[in-house]
Write the structure tokens for this entry.
Amino acid sequence: MNRPHVVVFGSINMDLVARTPKLPTPGETLLGYSFATVPGGKGANQAVAIARLGIPTHMIGRVGNDDFAQSLLASLQGAGVQTAGIWVDDSNHSGVAMIAVDDQSENHIIVVPGVNGQINEADVERLIHQLPGAAALLLQFEIPLPAIQAAAVAANKAGVRVILDPAPAQSNLPSELYSLVDIITPNTVEAKQLVGFPVDDAETAAQAADVLHQRGVNTVVIKLGAKGAFCSTATETFFTPTFAVQAVDTVAAGDAFNGGLAAALAEGRSLREAIRWGAAAGALSVTKPGAQPSLPDRATFDTFLSRHGM
């Protein structure tokens, strides 16, 4: 019998990361002291997070016909992600994020979507072929909203759970999208954008969850950073504490959380355990720098869980 797999539909970017003692002011030129190209993009990060935890994972998206594309595909394939659903698009460049980071870990980021911004229903057609037998479809907001909504419709028709990470933060989403989502996983910034009031603790998270339930979302998981994660369903609410680790770099922590969540659900684990897996994957990811390089493999993950009594 085939194991349930997970489908990820989203962005694939190359992060161009420069480190400098301080961030430039307008018109200022600075000398930096390091540079790296790091595969990223929220969609690709989540696919790598799931695959490294041993779950068969299919990525649907686009890269350009350029040198970055080869590195991006190699990073996905090296993690075990199935890339047959990724289209090499000659019409534009691969997505890039130009990131400047200073010695206080503050940053400036410019994202140029490239082919990610051209994803449309043709890509959804490729996605549809991967839905039979899938445990979940993961979506994020780094590709055009019409394609996201069409993918959610397709997953609903196929009886596949839809997990939406509403990042980057957006407001005024189509009302129809909420009813297509089984699990939504905003952080505090994204939750505020969605509901229109600050969300920074369990009490305000519960209020935000009520709003999102009224809009049609089945399960709301609000990531409260170091405070943990709040979950609300139609029948229960509960809080999952975070794991205490020494943080080095928080980039991709949210993607790691969604990867752990989806991996646990693909293995048939309960929602409570799945959120615990998400918290563990997120905690492990912040102990290393970079996006995809920080995402844990299954052996590291299992060891971490066993040390924390799971």
Notes: The mean pLDDT is 94.
